[in-house]
Amino acid sequence: MTTESETWPSTQSARRPWVDELQQWLTTVDHKRIGILYVLFAILFLVVGGIEASLIRIQLIRADHDFLAPQTFNQLFTLHGTTMIFFVAMPLMFGFANYLVPLMIGARDMAFPRLNAFSLWLTVLGGFLLYYSLVGGYGLYGVGSAPDVGWFAYAPLTSKTFSPGHSTDYWTLSLLIAGFGSIATAINIITTVFCLRCPGMTLGRMPLFVWLSLAMAMLAILAIGPLTAAQAMLMVDRYLGGHFFDTQAGGSAVLWMHFFWVFGHPEVYVLVIPAFGFASEIIPVFSRKAIFGYPIMVAATLAIAFVSISVWAHHMFTVGMTPAGNTFFVLSTMAIAVPTGIKIFNWLATMWGGRIEFRTPMLFCVGFLFQFLLAGLTGVMLASAPFNWQLGGSYFVVAHFHYVIVGAILFCAFAAFYYWFPKVTGRMLSESLGKLHFWLLVIGFHLTFDTMHVPGLLGMPRRIYTYEAGRGWEGWNAVVTVGAAIQAVAIGIFVINLVRAAFKGPKAGNDPWDAWTLEWSTTSPPPEYNFATLPVVRSRRPLWDLKHPEDPDWKYE
Amino acid sequence: MTHLAGTLEIEPTTLPSKGKVGMLTLIAAESAIFVIFVIAYLFYLGKSLSGPTTAILRPPIFFTVCLLSSSFTVHLAVAALRGGRRVPFLGWWALTFTLGALFLIGTGLEWKHLIGEGLTIRANLFGTTYYSLVGLHALHVLVGLLLLGAVTLFALVRRVGQAQAEQVDVISLYWHFVDAVWVVVFTVVYVVGR
Amino acid sequence: MVVCASQGIVSVWATATSVPLSPTNLFAPASTPAESIHQLALFILLVSAAIFLVVFTLLTYAVVRFRRRPGDPPGEPPQVYGSRQIELAWTIIPVLIVVVLFLSTSRVIFELQHPPRPPGAVMVTAIGHQFWWEYRYPGLKVVTANELHVPISDPANPTPTFLELWSADTDHSFWVPRLAGKTDLIPNRRNEMWIEPREPGLYLGQCAQYCGTQHAKMLLRVYAHTPQDFERWVKEQASPAREEPSVARGRRIFEQTSCVNCHTVAGTSASGRFGPDLTHLMSRETLASGVVPNNRESLRRWLENPSAIKPGALMPPMGLAADELDAMTDYLLTLH
Asked: Which of A91, A116, B147, C115 lies 20 to 30 Å (CA to CA) from residue A348?
């Protein structure tokens, strides 16, 4: 195996003062450190976004509540959505991809390490800018003013007329800058995958997580541009007197919606595809079986990515498109359910006939499977335009997308944490705290998001700072809020687990899970250069071949 | 590590060059941005409530020829450098720069004329979409000129040789992209749109 | 047992779809478009439930049956890399389901977006404002705000209401769940929707597209009347404002303060269109688009400082002295 390598700097802290250490981290171009920084950044903003959500839920716990002023509430849901998508979910996925992709393909780093660092710091700058608005964005309501236009910032609400001051500009600029970072990361991932694979690793032998990272990156390349363009147009309107979305000058508010959702829908696939990647690595290992149907998993992923570019206007069914237009988007949206469903069946078939170990990573993946099934079905309901005319813009939609983002994406992300934390730090996370985290989160998640569908079905729209008593929404909202509190506790337990284990967790060794992809062949943590000699592979599971020389994968592939 | 594959014969594979893949990916991302501006331009054709119309546009034929032929010259420059012929490389490269700069000057002149006719970015929908689209392209030409100029300076102090041909080729890819975008913009604005 | 179970299901269903559960219950449709959507929704829910049951069962079975047990043989289980037939089957079946759902959906799309327009249809122009609703009945010469009055429709002689939807500022959305799906009001764009209530009554809803600070309080109230009641309402609304000499002082204050720049009172010099038409203010049950009941106390509070009731409302406080406020309130209270 690999020879002993330079150990993790933290064990040499006696020789390195903390300033040196900090400088090392701030100037690093090592994909592993950059990945860790992305993830730490994401966890920080997860807590911030969670606080925002908690405040929102407290306000909504009963009718006509006056815990928050309307303007504050509107800023909170804008910040919550923007933060969670751009400064939690995306950095989380980029962080994991950064850390894992080079290791999984037997490379020493990403293709462009300095560009990688640049992307990270652009993202950090974006996050800082968004929150600087609390101090710097003056508006009608006081000195600091966060944006309050919703995370989707519909025109003409974002025009100078309706959003004076700079709060909207902080929204625009923070995302514009973070967007450049995201495009740069996507360029890096694509180039790394195409150009830095170790000998023997054809595209057909890459781990599924690498394929899915590639698909995510390609989608990001195509999807982020439209947002960048639309935001540039918004700035032209706000500061150069342009009329892109100026309805008084003949401009179209619907055009913004088209541009935004051409970005917005593929964006959620950018988030969920890596989650699929986590599941595709973890489920096989804990079922002790190879993934069922690798080629079709790849094909289905590419189909999902490709079709996702054609579904965007299902966010606009209520806008008054023609029947033909509506019909087209119904078809494309329902069509995407097919490859997505296929993936669920393939994971199911992977578990079938296996010997499943319910360690914490697998628990989270099982939760993901059940929850993603339900999320997909509520998605099919929303795909039907007439039903959407009732459900759209209501808490049913909020419940649906949180089911995907929390129930599927976040659950898979937690699975990934528990699975790869040993590799990154050399220590195991606590299994009992992990199980506690899982079960509390399951309870809180279902209490909140199962219940949340009901107010939607009873006519409660989104983005309202309060609601009338007598609409029948109160009890349900109270239950939703209670569930949120439980989820907060669960996440708190996770953070505690993370911190404790980082310093005092039991040693993990190279390969604690008896897994099969290249990252498990290095030490934990890996040396800075990953591999002393570049590996040469002959199948999709090089370590399986090593451990089962009598029955290697390359005989069957 | 080599024993991961047992006794094996690995299919020889040549992986593509990082620079090329990276630049092509960047071009894809930039294209997505341009597509949106083109769509906005086409969508708003004829929808301005007042102000100058597309009738005032004068197709910049000469400057377009300059820009498009600079693709040809940059190709010759890269070929020369790959062949190790530094002086022809520098000549063609500098000519590319000049043609690009001429194009930008031409854009400036065109804008001066249009502003004289009352078309500004705030005049109407046509003004907003025209200046944004053509301006975005001009900005990319400017960035391209900066790249070309930097390479020229490096070449003048004799730092650019055959070994750098691949990197220079990557930069020329960007320049080709800028030209290709102009083909689209020209067609949309001066042919289809008028 | 089966009878009990089905009775149970029926009673749960009855509760779940009842109006007492919520006056904005999607499953208690009271108008043709809402009913069509309801039918489609039930079908989709049924199909989804069936899919859920099947996959849920398979997942649960897999999780239980294939867990590692102490008695398991050592080593790894047989590695299965895939199966053409199985993968084909679970591709084709979802495709078929999608086709069925798609066809049933598109039928309803065309049915609802291309409805016939019978001669008795009532035409209303609805204009969305931050944060109130303007309603104009061009054929009937009625202009009102916030409370929409329509006739019920009888299948023998249908009188649906067609709404033309416009916006004076940002995006809004008209959503009264028991009457129809929502349609957005978008500036510089004409949208259209229709409703066809069958039972007289009050139907509630609210704006469903985020439009600014008071989006949450842009409530909708639709009153469905018998044809006779509707005619009476129209006649009252079409008449000019009442003139009461006893409130002349209040009226003078109204006309001399800048109220007339924003509000219309038919038959007087007030012809502003920025705010709601006040000609028949007292014919409305609520103020500020459904937020407070329409009575002396609320009206006076609103006039004193609209933002005390609806923070962020675009009507500014007029800075009137207490006795001026009283006088103006008295005047407005006469506008039946």
From this structure: A91
Is C245-333 in CATH node 3.30.70.260?
no
Q: How confident is the model at residue B1 (pLDDT cuts 50, 70, 90)?
A: very low
Helix (H, G, I), strand (E, B) or coil at B140: helix
Contact partners for chain A, using 3 or more CB pairs closer than 8 A, are B, C
User: Residue C148: phi, psi to the nearest 5?
Assistant: -95, 130
SS3 for C66? coil
Note the pTM of the prediction, 2 decimals. 0.95
C131-141: average pLDDT: 95
ipTM: 0.95
Return the residue in A388, A389, A396 with the most chain C beta carbons within 10 A, the one to mutate for interface testing: A389
Q: Can you tell me whether residue B51 is helix, strand or coil? A: coil
What is the arithmetic mean of pLDDT over A88-94? 98
Residue B107 near residue B138 (C-beta atoms within 8 A): yes
For A306-334, how does the pLDDT look when each residue is reduced to its tens digit (9 = 90+)? 999 999 999 999 999 999 999 999 999 99
Q: A348, C55: Cβ pair inside 8 Å?
A: yes
Mean pLDDT for A485-493 is 97
Mutate to test the interface with B, among A116, A231, A538, A550 (most CBs of B within 10 A): A538
* DSSP 8-state secondary structure symbol assigned to residue C129: E
Nearest chain B Cα to A192, which residue?
B18
Q: β-strands C122-129, C132-137: how paired?
A: antiparallel
The CATH architecture annotation of domain C122-226 reads Sandwich (2.60)
* The residue type at A389: W
Phi/psi of residue C173, nearest 5 degrees: -150, 135
Domains of chain A in start order, with CATH, are 18-555 (1.20.210.10)
Residue-wise pLDDT tens digits, B145-171: 999 999 999 999 999 999 999 999 999
Q: In 3D, which of C301, C302, C300 has the Cα closest to residue C327?
A: C300
Which three-class secondary structure string do you get for C180-198? CCCEEECCCCCEEEEECEC
Give residue-wise pLDDT tens across range B12-61: 568 899 999 999 999 999 999 999 999 999 999 999 999 999 999 999 99
Cβ–Cβ < 8 Å for A229, A212: no
Are B4 and A543 a contacting pair at CB < 8 A?
A: yes
Asked whether the beta carbons of residue B36 and residue A226 sit closer than 8 angstroms, the reply is: yes
| Distant-in-sequence, close-in-space partners of B158: CB < 8 Å, separation ≥ 6 | none
Cβ atoms within 10 Å of B168's Cβ, excluding its own: 25
Q: What are phi and psi of C166, to 5 degrees?
A: -130, 170
What mean pLDDT value characterizes chain C?
94
Alpha-carbon span A465 to A362, nearest angstrom:
38
- Contact flag A244-B129 (C-beta cutoff 8 Å): yes
Distance from C-alpha of A220 to C-alpha of A38, rounded to nearest angstrom: 17
> What is the domain partition of chain C in residue ranges?
2-64+83-112, 122-226, 245-333
- State both tokens at C132: 């109130």
